[in-house]
Amino acid sequence: MKTAIIGGGISGLSAAYYLRKLSVEKGFPLELTLYEPEASLGGVFDTLNNEGLVVEQGPDSFITTKPWALELIKELGLENSLINTSEKNRRTFVYLEGKLKPLPEGFFMIAPSKLWPFLKSDFFSWKGKLRILLEILIPEKKVEDESLESFIKRRFGKEALYKAAEPLIGGIYTSDSKELSLRATMPQFLRMEKESGSVIRALMKKSFGGSKDKSGARYSKFFSLKNGMSSLISELEKKSQIDSLELRNGVSELILFDSKWIINKKYDFDSAVIATPSYVSSDIVKRLDPQLSLKFSEFEYASSVVVNLVFDKSEFNNNPEGFGIVIPPKENMNLIACSFYTEKFPQRANADELIMRCFMGGKLNPDVIDWKDENIISTLSLELKKVFGADNKPKKVFIKRYKRSMPQFKVGHVNKINDILEIVSGYKGLAICGNIYNGVGIPDCIRSGKEAAEKIVQDA
Ligand SMILES: Cc1cc2nc3c(=O)[nH]c(=O)nc-3n(C[C@H](O)[C@H](O)[C@H](O)COP(=O)(O)OP(=O)(O)OC[C@H]3O[C@@H](n4cnc5c(N)ncnc54)[C@H](O)[C@@H]3O)c2cc1C
C-alpha cells in the first residue's frame, strides 16, 4: 500500500509509526512518503542543546493521565529516558494585584479538592471563598456545551474566574474564556456537575485517594525525556522507516482520481493522511470537497511567543519556590505565564543555572507575534521586574515565534469536529489527524495519529 502522510508534526509522525507497526503485524507491504514544507520534522517540537542546557522552545513535557504518549514512548524503547518533574516545590503562583500568591494546596484548576488549605489561604477573599463553596448547592444546568466563563461564573462566581480559571485554563489554550468550550477542553468538569451534582463534591471525593502534588495540579503525572522532547521525534522518524521523506516539500492539493489519491497533480497513492493545521487542510482539499474545505476553514488559531531566559542562579533575586507563575488577563500584561523550568526538571541546565520559559501573546494579545526581538525583550524585562520585584538580567535569551499554532476550541467545537469526521469517513483511504481533533496535548495528538493509521488499514 502506497501511503502519503501530509505533515511531519507529532500527529503525522504517529500516524506513520502506527501504520508501519500495523503493516508488520498484519503482513501487508507499505510504502510511506511523508511531505513536510519545513527543513526538519517535528512541527512545533523544538529542543535546543546549548552548552549543557536543554532548552525547550516548543512542548516541554506531557501528561500521563492520558495514556497514549507514555504507551508510545515505551514501544519506542525510550522508557529509560523518561524524567519526572522534581518532587520539590510542586506549586503554582498567580500574579494578583502586584503580588505573587501560591494557589491553595489541593486547588485543582477551578475548585478546591481540600477544604482546610483553601479556607486558610488568603488567595481568595472571604466573599470569594463563600461564593466558591456555594457551588455545592448550585443545581445542574443541562447544556450540551458552555464557555469556560459562563460555567465558572454560574457555579463558582467571578473571583474564581479571574483569579484561577482564566489564567490556569485559558492560559493553557492561550484563549478567551468567553469563547473556550468546556466540552472540548475540560469535559470532566461538566461530567462532575452531571454525575455528582457538584464539582467540589466530586473533587473532594477523589482527593481522599491522596496525592503527592501540593497544588492539585497533578505535577507527578508530567514527564519529559532526558535529552528533550525532540528525541521523541527522531525516534519516531527512525522507527517509522519512511521510504521517501519529502522535506521542504509541502502539499498544495489532494484529489481523488480513478480510486487513487493524487498529490500536487503528480504523485499517486492508495491512501493519504492529512496531519496539517486545519487552515492548511482546508486549502489542500478545496478541489476534492468544497464542503469539507469550508468546515476545515472555520477554526481559529492563536499565535504565541516563547522566550527562554537563562540566568546565573546566584544572581537571580526573589525566585518564589514553585514550578511557575500564571498571570490573569485582568492584570493587563503581555506575559501569560512563566515556568521555572529548571525547578521542574533540574537536569536541564548546569547546577549553577536557572532557565525560565515565558509565554506571551495568545488570542487576547495577538500583536506580540509581530514585535521585533528588542521589543519582546524590553517588554518582558519590565514585566518580569514588576512580577519578581527585582531586575534580574539573563545571560542568554532564546526567542521563538509560533504563528497560528494553537487551535481555539470554541463552544460548539466537538460538533464541528464530528461533522468533519463524518465527511472523511465517507472517503476510503483518507484519514485526518492533528491537535484540533482530540485535544492539543501531545497524548491527544498521538492518539489521533494512531486512529488515523487504523482507519487507513481498515479501509484497505
Ligand atoms: C509553544 C507550545 C508549547 C506547547 N507545550 C506543550 C506541552 O508542554 N505539552 C503538551 O502536551 N503539549 C504542548 N503543546 C501542544 C502540542 O505540542 C501541539 O498541539 C502538538 O505538538 C501539535 O502537533 P501536530 O502534529 O498536530 O501539529 P504541528 O506540530 O503544527 O505539525 C503540523 C505539521 O504540518 C506541516 N505542514 C504545514 N503545511 C503543510 C503542507 N502544505 N504540506 C505538508 N505539511 C504541512 C507543518 O510544517 C508541521 O510540521 C504546546 C504547543 C506550543 C505551540
Polypeptide structure, described:
The chain has helices at 10-26, 68-75, 115-120, 126-133, 148-155, 158-172, 182-185, 187-196, 199-207, 230-240, 278-284, 290-296, 341-344, 373-388, 413-425, 442-459; strands spanning 2-6, 31-36, 47-50, 53-56, 62-63, 82-84, 92-96, 99-102, 107-108, 111-112, 222-225, 244-247, 254-257, 260-263, 267-269, 271-274, 301-312, 324-326, 335-340, 353-361, 396-407, 430-432. By secondary structure, it is an alpha+beta fold. The protein folds into 3 domains: 2-45 and 231-299 and 409-459, FAD/NAD(P)-binding domain (3-Layer(bba) Sandwich); 61-88 and 301-407, Polyamine Oxidase, Chain A, domain 2 (Alpha-Beta Complex); 104-209, protoporphyrinogen ix oxidase, domain 3 (Orthogonal Bundle), CATH 1.10.3110. The strands form 6 sheets. A 7-stranded mixed sheet has the order 8-7-18-19-20-17-21. Strands 12-2-1-16-22 form a 5-stranded parallel sheet. A hairpin with a 2-residue loop joins strand 13 and strand 14 (260-263). Helix 1 (10-26) packs across helix 16 (442-459), helix 8 (187-196) packs across helix 9 and helix 11 (278-284) packs antiparallel against helix 12 (290-296). It is globular and about 70 Å long. The relative contact order is 0.20.
